[in-house]
Amino acid sequence: MAHTPQTKNPTKQQNTMIDPLQLTAGLHANNPITDDDMFDSDDASAASAHGDADTTNEEESPLSAALDDLESRVVSALNEFKSHPGRASHGQSIHEELQSVLRPVVEVSAHIGPASARAVHASYPDVYGLEFCVDAVYTRINSELILPVLLESAQSEMIPAKRAASLRMFHVLYGEWSAPGSYLDGGAVTSSLGPYGTDQSPLVGLTEHERNRRIGMRSLRRSELLRRWVQASIPNLSPGTFTSSTLDLVAAGRGVLSASAALKPCLRYIAERIGEADDAGALRLFLPVMRMIEGVLGRLFLEGEGSDGGSEQENDALKSSCIKFLEIVVLCFSNKALPGMAGGGQVASRMKRDASQANDFSLEDLPPGHPIITRESLEEIGEYAFSTLRGLVVLGGQAKIDTNLLLDAAASASSTKDFMGGGTSPFQKILAIIKPAALTFQKIESDGEKASEDKDSFVLDRSLIKLDFYLSQKSYSLSINAIQMLATKRPLFFKEASTCLARRTMDPPGGLSGDAEGLLSKAAITGIRTHLRSSCLTLLRHIFSVTSGCWEILVKALNLSGMDAQAERALQASRQQLDLMKGGRAARTRAAIFYEWDQSTDLSRAEKRQRDTDDAEARVRAAKIARGLGAGVQLPKSMSDSCELVLLNLKHLPTKRPPIASSAQRKRPVTLDALVDAVMTNGASLSVDENHWYDRDGGDAWTIEEGELDNDGRQQLMYQCKKIETETFIKQSKVAASKAFSRVLLSTSSNRSEAATSLGSQLAARLAWMLQGVEPSSDIKDAHATALMSIGNGPMGSDVSVQFAKENPLVSSCIAHDMIPPQQKGELGSLSAASETSGLSTRVLNEAFVCSLSEEVEDLSRKKQYAQCLDLYVASVVNACANANAVPSDYEKKRIANSASSSLPHQLLISPSVTPSSLNLVGSLCDIEEVSKKAVKTSKQSIAESAAAHAAKTAAEKRATTALLVLRDVAFQRDRMRGSAIGCAVAIAAGRLPASLPIQDKALKLVMNVIFQKNSDCAGKVIESATRELELATQISIENHEKIVKANEVTSTKREKQGSSSKIQSIPQSEEERTVLESVKKPVVLFMALCVRRPEIIKVIMEMSCRDGADVMAKAVKANMPKLAKAASVKHGAASIALKVADMSSDRETPLLLSFLDNLAPATEKALPSQDLINACHEIQRNRSLGETKDSRYIIPVVSGMKRVELQDALPDFVRDSDETFKASLRRMSERLSRYAMIFRDEPDPNEPTLRGMSSCEQIVNLHRLDFNAVGLPQKRYLDAIRLCLEDDEVFNDRVIQAALDYISGKFLEGETLPLAYMRTIILTCSKHESLHSWICHVLLPRLVEGKVYSDKRQWEGWMRCAKMLENTGDQGVSSMEAIARLPPDQLKIYRTKYPR
């Protein structure tokens, strides 16, 4: 046997490894949960998700060779970069040179790496899975090599140019990774694009699990890149990065640029994480982003003018970058909405759309719900930042901040405490920097407004205002641009921005003389003044200047600047725009008339040219007809016209016949009759076949003789052929009949007369059934081929057969006649501009129905003709829709499909009867998954292709909705077919019949909200069909049980070797289990929705789920149990439904009953289980307990709502139960008391206890106080219960244990006796929690000595053992010697006797 290499099967590994993204238990929803449940860090998660991607044996494996080659390229480029001296040497700038050095790193990271992974998979598809290869390349090349090296260089490189190049690389990588075919390609979310390429095997479709995994991996990679990008920027923003002030300013400037580029991508990712309820994942990136913002603002406001010692140009470059960053902060931390502004709603909505297209970010994009990252906190930062920008514009620099405030801000900014370790929030440090700067300007602004008489202007004594730094021309212009941009992008700031610019325009830099001021020269002063005036004029032209009422101050400022005329025209334009927007139809019509007049001349010229062209074509056509040339010969409409045309063309005949070959014998002489025939038949008679006698001689080919009379008075006619054999005569008769039938059929779609069309349809329908065995002519053969194709491509379960179509070819041609494009219908059919669905199909079906009811018909096959014909019709409609889905750009096929599907409801409504097979065919219209995938796949192609694909998807969804409406109508209007129609709709909703997810949702709503609510009969049919679907799902689960068990064992073995295991029981353990779980999940969800309306059928789903081998079914039920419990409790009451379900459940169904009860209790901290539910759970416990032994599992769901005194009484029952039940009860007792975990609460009124639940501290205390002898508990079980709590250090941590021991010792001093296990617990705590050694030595042990612990022999023995353990711990300052020294002499002697030094 051939030896296979010892390599992991990557394809199987993908199917069995734990995916951090799983489906929520939604109604056919595909929203992935967060990755926080599986990983602690984004960086670690990206590596661990790829983790263990290396093969077990890499001896010369193709993947290892490819990885080595990629790694060698990257290492070579990085080595060259690291060894670069930092000076340009090839005539380029240093930055361009470093870019070219790092370009191979970018190519390998973003493009060559994924391409190599796809190539390895394509060459060895049976050995290496595609996702395995991509993960291995990403982990080794990017996660373990490129990103760490770039981060290290950006943080610690001593050459500023190389540090700047490293920072820029993160921005470049983010853009390149977002390109098609790379790791962050958007197409990778829902298709096989992105790093996985398009080489997915067409035989194995992309499963839902694989799509979710790719979404998760894309999110993790994006998080890793953004996190490292931010981490690389932060060190460059700290002062003192370089000892040289010049180099420090350069590095800070590059850091600010990097921060500016990273801010919006980071905020968009944070918003996505919050939207997916991943609060921890959002916070992990948010905290570094806040530190980055803090660093930039610190460089701007905490550094005085020239404090860095650099040149003026370098200081100004840094300040300009910081001001631009401040603009981005305001833009991101503000709202797009325009509250309370009349008349601006349309403009605001248009601005919002434009902003979204410009890749904007605002607070509306941040989902609510995060406990820390809130819109209010960010909005506060944005408002203060905007105030500082206004101050920079009005004052020409930053006003000097109060020294005390500045010192506090500097201390806060330099604090080493972070948000998780300290007590401050991430916003306070930023506010400590920016708030003093904003408040300083607001104070100056307020004083100036109070000192002025005019509200539009204010008086500033600039000689009294001291500035921390001045703005240069560049930074001043950036500040003005920032204010202007924020006014137009954020209408909320428009009024304040307009007032700010107008006031500065009225009090410009340089004063009245325009002399130099601060860092501004006289020429710079002139440029700034011009900039201010143009900004005011721009804002005045905006519609918000009128709606906000700030046009007055803008006009005043421009008038003072000598721009009266420009201000008047700008104001007129803004008012005209507002009037047009708010005006009615008449105003808009008047505005449109101008444009009609403006283009009227051009239209008249175009019309004249078109008329001249038409006249010229008409003259040429007339000349052709007169000469009898080419296509000019047309069939005249009357005999007189024919005669005139013949006589007209006689003079054009040549004098001699054209020469012909000697072998050719003309069988028909050229006579006037031949000429007339040629003209009348439009030339067809010249090429007629001599064997087709009906085309040549017509009725002269046979004779008719009259026969005898029949009994009914009919006279028989005898036909006799003259010139050909009888067999040939029969064949020719069929051909003649076929052509005659085709002419009749084609006339139904080309005749403009409704009466003629109706008559043609009647004739065609009757002839189609009479002319059995007659093959269709070439004119309608495409229709027959389409019918055969419809049968071949039709779904299973239909009675349509190829035999029926072959025996009745003309019938199938009639049925499919309207399903083919006009160009395939022959000349007559092509005359119709659009082929509408006629009554031809209806008449054919009626003929079939009449024939099947006729008593003269004895053949059973004839009885089935109607059903077969109806199925053929529906199959033709389905085939037409499939053809339209296959070619989205074919407009004609799309039109035919829409026409056929729209006429289907009416056709089935007027049909004499409907069959179950036809309904199944109707249901197949919902299978539009392929066209939905095509719409996604073409999203990266041209705009036209993408638009066509999305239009095709929309049309397909509309046709599928029509199919659901057909099923609804049949269920409501046809009693005999009600069960079949409802069964088909339920099968679509349950996922057994293929359909896309939106259509499945519509089917589910149709079944639950429409059909079920119609009447009791419909409701019963729905329940029957859902039960049938649930039974099928159960059988699938049982049939695959053994295969799933084996696959899970293999997966478990692999995970044990890898050192990982799954603690979540609801997650499928293998790909086989996942596949079966997906197939049974939707029937379970549907049936559970019915259980809410009919609680008595809960018994059915619980009984099926508890069958032998139906483990996957039970897992699906448990996964969706929260929705059932919540909906049932809302509709029927939690207590009532709990008792009802408990009465229906048998002992075998106890696990599902417990799951149901567990989900009935509220899951929020503020909502407690009602007393009725608590009483119901107690009643269930009494009814289902055996003898005197109580099963505490039934009251665990409501222990959080029980009074503490009741829990103290029930605590022995919990301790007596199993370890799992005991720990579950403790968790539920304290789940709503997390804030009181370290507190023993006192009852407000001991006579009337009101406290509910039991905190962790109270649990430890009550366990120690438990009198195990009185309640019949073994001492070993009592001590084991305490030990279990101490081992669970996630809940009972050192602080909880300390609080419990402290409380008991305090009560001991008050006179209570120490519990039996108290000293044992202290000794175990010493062994487990080293952090409590100091407290035990210096507080607890002396306290016990004070309470005379030595009076109890057992407790005294424990005290001495504990003191001995801590006497010589080796930690400085931690020793029990102090407590030992407090012992009385006798006890000290006893202690030293037993434990000498």
From TrEMBL:
Keywords: mRNA processing, Nucleus
Key word Transcription regulation present: no
Domain of life: Eukaryota
Bias kind Acidic residues: ranges: 34-43
Symplekin/Pta1 N-terminal domain boundaries: 311-389
Pfam family, one: Symplekin_C
Bias (Polar residues) ranges: 1-17, 1059-1069
GO cellular component assignments: nucleus
Ranges where the Symplekin C-terminal domain occurs: 1191-1391
GO BP terms: mRNA processing
Compartment(s): Nucleus
Transmembrane feature ranges: none
Protein name: Symplekin C-terminal domain-containing protein
